[in-house]
Batch of 2 targets.
Target 1
Amino acid sequence: MGADVKASLKLMIVDDSNIIRRRIERSQQIARLEVVGAASNGREAVELFRRTRPDVVTMDLTMPEMDGVECVQKLVAINSNVLILVVSALADKATAVDAIEKGANGFLCKPFTDRQLNDALAELLSEA
Amino acid sequence: MNSRLAKVLNPLLTPAGSLVLVVILGLSFVAVVLVPGLELASEVADSSTALKLLGEQQRHPTLIRAALESIHDRLGGRGYIQESVDQLRTSSSQLDAAMHEMTVPQPGSWFSLMADTGAKGRPIAGKHAAALLDIWAKELVVLKPVLGFRGVPYQDNESTGTNLNEGGRQLDRDVGAALRAGRRALPQLDAEFTAIAAELQSTNLRSATQLRVVMLSGLVIALALVVLVSVLLSARQRQESTLRLARQQTADILRTVKDGLFLLDRDLLIGSAYSASLETLFQRKDFAGIAFENLLKNIVSERTLATALKFVKILWAERTNEKLVKTINPLGEVEVHLDGGSGRSETRYLQFDFHRVRVDGEMTHVLVSISDVTTRVDLANELQTAQNQAQGQVDTLLGILHIDQAQLQSFLNDSNAAMKMINAVLREPTREEGVFRKKLDTLFRQVHSVKGEAAALGLSSIETRAHAFEDDLKALRDRPSLSGNDFLPLVIKLDDLLTHLQSVGDLVARLSHLQIVQGDVAHTATAVLEEEQPLQTGKLDGGLGATLQKLCLRVAGENGKEAALHCTGFDAVPADYRRAIKDIGIQAVRNAIVHGIEAPDTRTAAGKSRAGAVRLSFQDLGEAGYKLIVEDDGQGLSTERIKEVALKKGFLTPERAQTLDTKQIFALLFQPGFSTLETATKDAGRGVGMNLIAELSNQLGGRVAVGTSLGKFTRLTLTLPRPVKRADGADGTEAA
């Protein structure tokens, strides 16, 4: 990636809601972030992750097949440098804390505005 | 150049640099001053000793010469020589010993000391040793015969007297020879001694000079040391005072800051420095070293505690983005239960904020700041309550919108009058039990009429409050004894009722304004007209007919009955009687439906129509006054049932019951507190309604008559005189 002059980063969106996936894809305006894929559950996400090797992931927590916390753990095991932003409702802080404990980097509360999404992604990338 | 000097000096002026400088100076002091100084001092001391000894030896040649001359003289004068010979022996033996010491080096002797003082290992005396030995040996040769002399040098002769004997002559010759030899040798010896002394002197002088130089440089070094040490000390002192000041400021901040502040280390233990307000926030002391878990244990839920501990731990992971996890802080606004002392649990809301503390990029602590947000949370709750209340107001408003403005205005006017009356009654000073009871009855009637009318208009919020007020009055009435203090709680309930009436009044006022703005002229005009010129036209009965119709519908509905109300002649009610007629009408209609009209099935069974009929008619009798008739086609009044209840409730003694006629039995109905119902509902059962009717009719100077036929009807006939002008129509103290 260091070879790439523009240093573009690959973004993968994981959410079981089609609306949210599309929303994130359309709203994200970080110049060097390029959406490379979207998954609707944890299992799909792990597969897609192996294939596309994204640098940044937005992760829903409650999903069928494999939930977000487990998925985070798997993704970090594959690439410990990946940046993961948990995007979920704030109903259960304990689960969100679990996801961070397993290696996610930050949290964005649903529902979010475009500005909140972009601020969170920028903040996530600022430490990269 | 100055800056270059500063560059060189700066590292030296740091505490560490100064310390190195002090050590170097100390060592050089030892090397340059102490060691050579000690050496030079011992050199000076040695040469001084040597000089002193030399001085002692220097007198011996002179003494030897003096002794020889003394022997020579005494031999000539035939004197006693032994003393001089002894002197010679002592001096020469001492000089001999000294010679031996000076020429044969021996450790510890003055000679060996002298030898050491010689430059570059050339002993001063050593240079002169050969000459000294040579001279002394020669001298010793000539002295030996003299020294060896024993006996007496004289012989006595009677003719010639005392003469030298053979030995004496020989001694004389020897002394003469020694003197001659000594005249040459002894000055030589003396000269040698003098030369040695001179050399010693110069060595001594040199050493002393060197010692002075050493001492002077020592002094300089010592001075430098003193300066350096004092600079160091003052720097240290400055540093300490700066440190003390900083520490004081930290302490001041920690003592004064409103937030609870402390640091957590990697093991989640609380550090030794924390703000004083922490003690207030947690109502405990000694936080230093305790685990974060123990701080929260028992004051937050176990689940929250577990999540909180996990949350603080993830802050230590470098992966975690501090800003992006703030929203999931489980202690962002947490309800805590603190022991408020004496076992009482106090609930407060605390806000915990966590900040990473880094030193040189390395995370060392988590700073925890805690603030009490109870007020904020309470305010938010209050706001919620206020919003709910506002919603309630909107509901009331919508209710009001459905009520005819004229009716509503008339109700509010009446209620306000009733409230004034209640207030006046409550304030009226009283001591007697009987008066208290009477007060209670008056209050009951007033509240009851407000309640009744509110119910008639469908203003349930007012009805509920009035009912609650009635409940309190009922509780008071049931007490065996009454005092003024018992009335105090009523004031609060009254206030609640008043406030609510006020807010409804405000709403109505605003509403009418709104309607004007909206141009609903016809409707508003009715309300305004009604307010300014009540009942000028016959058509306007103050909404009485409509009010009663509404009441009839509601009371019938709530009591599982069907009833139709027929009102006639209400437009003839004079203004002064409006309030009273309305109150009476409300109570009468209510009573008719609750007590008179039977349930539809009962009615059908009795061959009547399902719906009962209640008829109210108001008639102007001209000079004779007015007549109000309230009649229902219900079950009628049973004298037996009335007597039974009166006996049971203690209104009658059994003996008295025997003697009562029908009229007297019906009179029981108008007693305060009398009701044939077992439990009070909103509509009946408190025994107020009939009493209110009687009381109101009394106030107007009228009479009430009861007519009934069991199973057919009940009829109340009120006869009222024409109104006389009075200051206050609601004055309850005037009775007819």
Target 2
Amino acid sequence: MSTYNQGTDEHRWAMVVDIDKCTGCGACITACYAENNIPVVGEEEIHKGRHMGWVRIERYWEGEYPNVRARFLPIMCQQCGQAPCEPVCPVFATYHSATEHINVQVYNRCVGTRFCANNCPYITRVFNWFDPVFPEPLQEQLNPDVTVRSRGIMEKCTFCIQRIRRVEEDAKAAGRPIEDGEVQPACVQACPTEALVFGDLNDPNSKVARLAESRRAFKLLEDLGTEPAVIYLKGGDAHVV
Amino acid sequence: MSKQGITRRQFLQGTALAGAAAVISGCTLSLQKKEYLEPYVDMPEFALPGESVWYATTCRECPAACGIIVRVHQGRAKKVEGNAMHPVNEGKTCARGQAALQALYNPDRLRAPVAQSARGSRQFTSIDWNEALNTLYQLISETDPARIAFFGGDVPDHVLWILETFFAAIGAPPPVIYSTHAAWEGKRALRLVNKSLFGVDRLPVYDLAHADVVFSFSGGFLSTELSPVHYNLAFGRMRGRQDTGGPRGVVVHFEPRLSQTAAPADRWIPIRPGTEGLVALALGRILLDEGWARNTAAAPFFAGVDAKELAEVTDVEYERLRHLAQLFGQAQAPLAIPGSAAAAHRGGYQAVMAVQMLNILMDNLGKPGGLWLAPDTRIDGLTPKTEPASLADVRDLVERMRSGQVDLLLLDGSNPAYGLPPEVGFVDAVANVGKVISFSSFVDETSVWADYILPGHTPLESWGYQVVDNGTDRLVISAQQPVVRPYYDTRDVADVFLFLAQALEPARAQLPWLNVVDFLKSRMEVIRNLGIPGSFALDNVEEAWAYWLGNGGWRSKEPLWSAPVLKRELSQAFNLAPEFEGGTEYPFILYPYESPTLTDGRGANRPWLQELPDPMTTAMWRTWVELNPETAYLLGVQRDDVVKVISPYGEVEAIVYIYPAIHPHVVAMPLGQGHTDYGRYAQGRGANPVQLLGGREVDVVKDLAWLSVRVKIVPTGRRQRLPRLENNAGVDRAREVGFPG
């Protein structure tokens, strides 16, 4: 039931990923690096599977030459309603936020057990194996709204909670409801094909709520019962010889 | 030119005067070191503790000129965001645009002007700007103007206009402007084809958003070419129509390799390299024969074409071509888009023309979802008259340099030593040039041959504008302003030349402005005189200036693109076929492509872009060579083997990537790596496939024919893991089809 019109603060923030529009360009990834102070780890760490991106674009090959197709699937934290990462955290560093309905990671509680990453079926959590390095003066690019995580800390996509909070506070101060499209995580803001859409599922008129009703809608690993807040719209299939 | 009229003393006095004027006008051009005591409690303007401000400017990571808004916090640029009011990108950005911050805060930037003890020695000593400018002034005033040369690349319009005016005034040859990126996107061929067919020297604009069947011929319009953010936006809208009850746009992509632009297409059709024009010819023939063509004005072009014969040559079966022609011919809004690789071989000019002929056949010129011509961007007082140079023009300059006819070479915005094939001989020719001065922000492969580097500001610290030459229906004059104060002791190139003009009598009359801000303000009147209703009134300069900065430039209210009109009788197509150098000992065709992340190599010093996975291979940090699984099997190489790629012109090493979607006779390599200079993130990793190219030119276009060499692959016996996001199981199609892994 929608609580949006009842004047509460409750939101069900959600993202729609239209894979029929995704061109794999990577604007979301770099925008996320910039917004969230994600460190670059270098070639050696990449070999160990330690790329720190909070969103990745998986590329799937379908078919054999010459009848090959490639499909892109951007994957970020699915902000599960029933999140497998949450119950395994011994220190409540990862927990469910009651007002935003997203999974929150409290960096200064995290002790680095990595249980959460182990339990995430979407493999969207990344771990700081080292302190991040920003050679002078690259530290100037750092976003002051977002903590720079240190060694031993788990992190993941936050739906740019700093941006959500800012809009929430601005709206509250102005005594008005949040408008649809007012909150834009960095990836959604950058996405040049508008494949990414963000909004409040509790608002029945929001763009995400309408797209979630699409016949193309599905969720990743839906059968696990994780209740993701990321809704995918499947790619169209025009039959062309 | 008046050389006696000014002494060194007078010149220095001029320096001081200009400096004082600059300080008064609040500009960054402070030519004298002055120090002010700032009261402790005074904050710089607009810098409130804890509050961010956003400045509208223009992205210069590629020439598309997207509007961006940069978040600035306590005087530091934090985030590049799209300008929603800008007609090119409507608030969107690409990964490369985001990384503009890492040019500004790059740890390997030059922090002050430097002199190099011997060219190529990398032994630099810092000099101060007075010395730098005096040196530049002396060199320019004492050199025979005819023996001065300026070589530039993607230089913004305002700098180019100033340079052009400056060099004309002192009697020097006009600047030679050659962008390697433009060569990789086939811009010149597109312009010249439009000139020939429609009589206007402008770029095409494709109304992708409203097309329903799109045939794309080896293009990268979704990755690096023309106006990629704009076309991504249009692509999204084309697909988005299905959510509002409209038809979902269908894309068919013809290319020897399944590129990033091919990936979101509904169908990728592998063709032999360089046969895009032939495919278009065959399709056109079928459209005419079956009566699907809607305008037969282009029919003579297809005279004598045998579609069945072409099916053999292109590797696309005739039946399939027929089905495709039917799909195209019966679409409501069909659109054909010629891409860069179509234009990149000897017959590229005619090949691009053949693809545009499909648009003429389907009568989509100037219609929704069809082919349009960009607004006229030739504006007196705003855009330069100098034509972008062809490779042939570059060769002329290189020949002048080599034969000792150039005493002073000025370089800005280009990296020819890295981006041009060695066969062109740029580096060798530099040795015979008297003095070389670069305005590069970095020590790159070209500026390392300079005697002096007078670093310009990075784009986020610069003033200026760019007149958008393609991608939108409006006339857009996109404004650039510094979002932060210059971080280092660098200086705007435009300011440097305006300053020199003050001291050089013949140029002063033409360039009377003391600094670039004065110059830009004076352009408000030029825009007003266009008499075009625009986004804001231009009657009052100061008011217009405020809008100019706030909106990120000026744009026409109404669409100013125009419908192409066929201006001449057509004759039969000829010479469309590609030609490849290298005999039978070179069994593969080399298919180099601009990296979607690093483009032509300019992005290689941005760590975000180095660690951004390539969309198709998910690889980072290195150079790979893509082989069809069958080809790899026949060569006996596996994933992560290091091989030598050898062409008649050179050899490079690359890591094998088994690519399931590439023609078996083709090996593909991304550009971007293989830097020997350009900072810690760029240098010493991967290889530069440009080293494999000869200097062949496209017929008529006279630009680099980068799809014209054959190569052989020789295993080295070494292995090196290619850094990538994807795990090995995901990479190896070879293993799945039973090849040893």
